[in-house]
Amino acid sequence: MPTKASQKSDVTRRDAVKIAGAAAVAATAKRTLAAPGIQTVKAATNLVNYAVIGTGGRGSYHIEHFNGIDGGRCVAVCDVDPKALEKAMASSKDKPKGFKDYREVLALKDVEAVLIATPLYVHYPVTRDALLAGKHVFCEKSLVFLPEEIHALRKLANERPRQILQTGLQRRYSKFYQTARQMIDKGMLGKITHVYAQWHRASLGKTWVPPSWRAFRKFSGGLTAELASHQVDVADWMIGSHPEFVTGVGGIDVYKDGRDGYDNIQLIFKYPGGQKLMYSSISTNKHLPLFGSTRTEFGEMIMGTEGTIHITVGTDNEPATALWFYEPSPKKAEAAKGQEKAAVASPSLLSTGKGGLALPVLLEKDQVNENDSFLQKELKFARQWLYRKGVMVPEETKNPVDIQLEQWFESIRTGKRPLADLEVGLEDSTNVILANLAMDEGRRVFMSEIDKMGGGPAGAKKA
Ligand SMILES: NC(=O)c1ccc[n+]([C@@H]2O[C@H](COP(=O)([O-])OP(=O)(O)OC[C@H]3O[C@@H](n4cnc5c(N)ncnc54)[C@H](O)[C@@H]3O)[C@@H](O)[C@H]2O)c1
């Protein structure tokens, strides 16, 4: 067994080959909702009976995804808007009953679990009532809206440890993000010092302008809650801690349409180890300087002393993407010089020079291992070559949204703690709430301030 130190200090071409292993037959595995072999619904045994509360944009997206996965049966849907309700009833394969009042859904004995996709200001009341009614919960991000809800939900959920509470932070379920985290654990990026994350748009669609709830502070945490929440969570995960303080500037500089929520935000989160997250969300330009600008809008750059990862989650139309830029310390670059000859057969695989070369981040399933047959190895090496030439790209075979929903069912059946659990959700909401406060008050806001806000923890200490 290599020691942790030797693992950390020895990122050689072999490591690169291991990580940049080779992919499954991604060319044929379509990463769409209808991907064959992935979304087939099996015989209905041991299904989780669930309801969807809030069937607007996200709720109906989830219903569409539920239709393609195993493990549950939608017995009820609920929305205060009759149109959204009708659409949901028609689109679920399970022919669920429709309800206007979520309390009627919570009163149904055969509903074991509820997925909550209401606007942010309605997350907590429904989540609270669902927990009190004994239901398992999946609540969309960001988990809660107000400081007092952080304390109250922590207390309530910790009093009910047998009920699953999962948050809709789907990046936690992405194989690419999980692989990036493993690379960090192996020391392949050195010490992580900075994360840059952005979600830029060239315009705001109709769900973002008045009268949409998202435009108003009374109902919404704006860009911070709706977009940054995903990426601040990624930074916490990759850095491995939670911020110490946040500062930032937000403005209503373009959309003077009656909104009171910012249309652009710039934030810096400082972590206890000195790491920083630099965050930007604007609504006037969608350029993304990552991935050689082949993508737009959103992504994260994780920067370590010995390498960088560009990463972004997939959508229904675009694959998840992750690139690794190996940037060895001068000492390692010197040590690696002797290997340059050995690397001639794969000249584009590893640069020991200026560290400017990108390697695809490959998933575990793609990595060559010693149990592979000769043919399997050859196929993987062939694909690896195609990746390096840019002919193929490694792909996640499942949308992380599907994985998060499947794992929610699994957690309900087994009691296994979700990856995006209560604390992940509450830390994320704390970051969102305090980032907005920092911009509003034009000061550094320390994360510890949350303890004194909203009436304090009220005996609701962290589990
Ligand atoms: N994880 C993600 O990537 C992701 C993506 C989009 C949205 N979301 C989250 O999902 C949530 C919903 O967003 P959306 O885009 O679907 O908003 P939306 O406005 O399209 O839909 C919300 C729905 O909730 C309904 N609703 C409001 N109050 C209700 C109540 N008391 N009972 C039942 N229904 C009620 C509304 O009528 C509406 O149909 C938000 O928290 C948002 O941040 C997450």
Per-chain topology:
Layout: H1 4-9, H2 13-19, E1 48-53, H3 57-66, E2 72-78, H4 82-91, E3 97-99, H5 102-106, E4 113-116, H6 123-132, E5 136-139, H7 147-158, E6 165-167, H8 175-185, E7 192-199, H9 222-239, E8 245-251, E9 264-270, E10 276-281, E11 298-304, E12 307-312, E13 321-326, H10 330-336, E14 358-360, H11 374-388, H12 400-414, H13 422-441, E15 445-446
Parallel strand pairs: 1-2, 1-4, 2-3, 4-5, 5-6, 7-10
Antiparallel strand pairs: 7-11, 8-9, 8-15, 9-10, 11-12, 12-13, 13-14
Helix pairs in contact: 3-4, 6-7, 7-13, 9-13
Describe this structure in words.
Helices cover 32% and strands 17% of the residues. It has 463 residues and is α/β, with parallel strands linked by helices. The chain has two domains: 4-140, Rossmann fold (3-Layer(aba) Sandwich), CATH 3.40.50.720; 171-339 and 355-363 and 420-458, Dihydrodipicolinate Reductase, domain 2. The strands form two sheets. The protein has a nine-stranded mixed sheet with strand order 14-13-12-11-7-10-9-8-15. Strands 3-2-1-4-5-6 form a six-stranded parallel sheet, with helices on both faces. A hairpin with a 2-residue loop joins strand 11 (298-304) and strand 12. Helix 7 runs antiparallel to helix 13 (422-441) and helix 9 (222-239) packs across helix 13. It is globular. Residues 53-59, 78-81, 84, 102, 117-120, 122, 140-141, 168, 170, 207, 226 line the site of nicotinamide-adenine-dinucleotide (NAD).
